[in-house]
Amino acid sequence: MFVFAALFSVAGFGQRASTPGIALYDEGRISAAVITLRAESTSASGKKNPDIFNILGLSLVKLGDFPSAVGPFERAVKLRPGDATMRTNLAFAYIKSGQSAKVIGHLSRAIKIDGTNVNAYLLRARAYTNTGRFKPAEADFERVAELAPVSATGLALRAELHYMIAAYQDAPLSKTAERLRLAADTLGVAVTQCADAAECDGLKLRLEGLRLLVQFVDKKLEPNPDEPIGSIPTALEPGITDLKLLFKPRASYNDSARMRGIQGTVSLAAVFGADGSVLYAVPLKRLRYGLDESALNVVRQMIFEPRRENGVPVTIVRLVEYNFALY
User: Fold this and answer.
1) CB-CB contact of 56 with 38 (8 Å)
2) Are 13 and 83 in contact (CB under 8 A)?
3) DSSP code for 47
4) Rounded CA separation 52/37 (Å)
5) What are phi and psi of 241, to 5 degrees?
6) pLDDT above 90 covers what percent of the chain?
7) Which helix (H) or strand (E) holds 54?
8) CA–CA separation, 19 and 28 (whole Å)
9) Nearest to residue 110, comparing CAs of 94, 99, 98?
10) Is pTM beyond 0.70 here?
11) How far lies 211's CA from each of 38, 116, 157, 227, in Å?
């Protein structure tokens, strides 16, 4: 599924014991903190100190080593099970390392401990979205709106929810277009609220892609479009180098569809980003029985060279088709 990189940071917590490793973390010397905290965690007293394990997990997160952060966070939660922030940190590490099975349970426990934990609600909404549970995701977003002022993080994740509903919920194309417009409008507001330059650049890229996707789907809804949707010009203008597809993974044919004799083509409108990633995709023609999901789940793995205009990479939308046939 399409998932944003986390737009918020996992948090430490207020009262904690001070150790040399924790002091290094507070000073921003993260690599040194990891070495020291790992040593401290093996001492007789360190093995019982949840603060050491939590800060070690935070340090590894800052270094981008999410899988390695899981173990320290798990140990911190075991030592201090009633700490909502530690559970939220663990859930974040699970999500970022692709271990989603335990996420919702930990976040629900964190929310039960602290009903004002905004990060826990945001992460749980994201986890619900990733598993297609859109109604509870929307409920969590509503709770965030009650607890916190409008933020780029919450708005960006809400925009992601609208996109995921558009992509994965079987509905008429007109309804898909409505959801995409909601996603684009919400993400547009998020861009106005972001403060970090790198975060803003990422949101702006995604907003551009969403708006192009909305235009593409709206044109598909026209009774007589001027040209075939997704068509590639036979002659390019000077200074333009078109998108070059390098790898298109195959979509898997599941047993449920095969047993029912379902075959045909899933047509997707895919956004090929200027950054070299597939930003979004929505079905224009569905087959159902899990085949739409199969196509959506592999389209983002496509490898390509972006279209360039005067040497500058640009974002475009193209038609991508996956054929499913009984042999």
Assistant:
1) yes
2) yes
3) G
4) 6
5) -115, 120
6) 61
7) helix 50-62
8) 14
9) 94
10) yes
11) 47, 34, 17, 19
Tell whether the model's pLDDT for residue 113 goes beyond 50: yes
Name the strands in the sheet holding 240-241, side by side, starting at the edge strand that comes first in the sequence.
240-241, 307-309, 312-314
Whole-angstrom distance, CA of residue 248 vs CA of residue 254: 19
Q: What digits encode the pLDDT tens for the residues 25-52?
A: 999 999 999 999 999 999 999 999 999 9
Among 16, 89, 76, CA closest to 26: 16
Q: State the residue for tokens 């948090």.
A: 11
**Chain centre to alpha carbon of residue 6:** 7
Across the strands, what pairs with 270? 281, 318
Name the residue with tokens 């933020």.
151
Q: The dihedral of CA 221, 301, 159, 199: what is its sign?
A: negative
Q: Write out the two tokens for 71.
A: 């173990």
Cβ contact 285:267 at 8 Å: yes
Backbone angles phi, psi at 304, to 5 degrees: -155, 165
The whole-angstrom separation of Cα 73 and Cα 61 is 10
Cα separation, 211 vs 78, in Å, equals 45
Which pLDDT band holds residue 182 (cuts at 50, 70, 90)? very high
The span from the CA of 296 to the CA of 15, in Å, is: 45
Is the CB of residue 163 less than 8 Å from the CB of residue 183? yes
Q: What tokens were used for 232? A: 């590639």
